[in-house]
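Good morning C.,

I know you're traveling, so I'll keep this short. The sequence:
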Amino acid sequence: MKRIFHPLFLAILPFAVPLAASAQARSTDTLDIAARANGGRVIASTSTLDSDKAYSADNLIDGTVWSGPNSKTRGWASDKFDPITHDSVILGFAGNRVVNIGKIVLNPSTDLPRERWAKDVEVQTSTDTAEGPWTPVAQISLKQSASAQEFPILPTPARFVRLVFRSNYGSDRAVALGEVSLYEAIDTSDPVGGLITRLEGAIGDLRRYREVQLESGNGGGQTVSTGALSPATVQLVQLIDGGEGRVPVGKTNIALTRNGGKIVAYSSIFDNDASFGPDKLIDGDNFNATTGKGSNGWASQGFAPNREYVTLGFAQDRTHLIGKIVLNAVSNQSDLRWARRVQVQATTGSFKDGPWKDVAALNIKGKSFLERSVNQEFLVRPVEAKYLRFIFSANGPGIVLPNADPNINSDRSVSLGEIEVYEATTNNDQLGSLISRFSSVLSDLKTLRRKMQDGAATTE
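The tokens, ready to paste straight into the viewer:
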């Protein structure tokens, strides 16, 4: 069969070849082959919490992850946790075919206590039957974080994948996991696959270079050695960066409604009162506790740590390089309800499913009413974000009561007055823009490759 290449492939071929920066980079397809929607199957699981279908292992491949009280999934949980007799889950793929696994993504988030979340997981594969024989291919250690965590593995053939849960974060009641995604390694023997691998390697080099630039945190302005990069990538960086490595922060609040900022998801609203809606967080009109004027800010219905959240996006759903976040705690609620600690997560994917990456834990300082009644700026290590999620983990001024959770000064609500977000710009964001453009081309190439493969399969 004669292979016809897409114009996009032909256009970037002369440019992509000299950017072969990392021969060891592992590229993977964009299709989650474990997802039920793509033919993935749960073959077996050792147990289910209280035999409750709400915690079935089928939740691991439903394409959604628990993120708050309104979530439609709870993830999977075993009926116990025994560090000697380990629980496990076995997955299979569409058509019972053998696939070449190159990456696994796990999200430990469930609605159960975090002590039950999975920590150490062994990944095993079998090319024969769901009873084995099994070959260990990876030992994974998960952070106790409600985010998708990626683990590249050496390309491994598998008809079945077994996840063996070696430990959790300290509970003998159960071990729990929110979601599993698996991705095939891209075959580098075909021209498009080889090009994808080379381009992804160059993008990885550029990302690492920028991370080193920002290592001192939010700017720094120091010149960084490019010794770790390939000569082709160094030349490209020097052309666009001028060797200065300075990262200023922009002056435009990109979260502001009139600048295109928008609320895309939230956990709850106080008494379902629209005057406490999350849109008040980005209206630029903070509540004045002295005069009683201004918008009320946002407030939740009830409060338990890490259950209430607000997710915001930007104009035209663009991805930005975030460098600074400003929070103002003042709302038209008791200061016992004002947010005290906020976990910030970012994603360049879906605001519903992520994958989410932890950015920073922001602690709003001050004990007195006046100390907390001001804008508080937080410079964060620059991170790419299409959406930002703010998860509220403590409220009030930090009053410690006997036999009470120190994170909760009021269980009636958690509130916040205003959120501002500012971009970090790397020399007018040329480096960030270049990486974004390359990433977009890479995504297009992977999509093109999949369409070519699907088309070839149809004609056979």
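Safe travels,
E.
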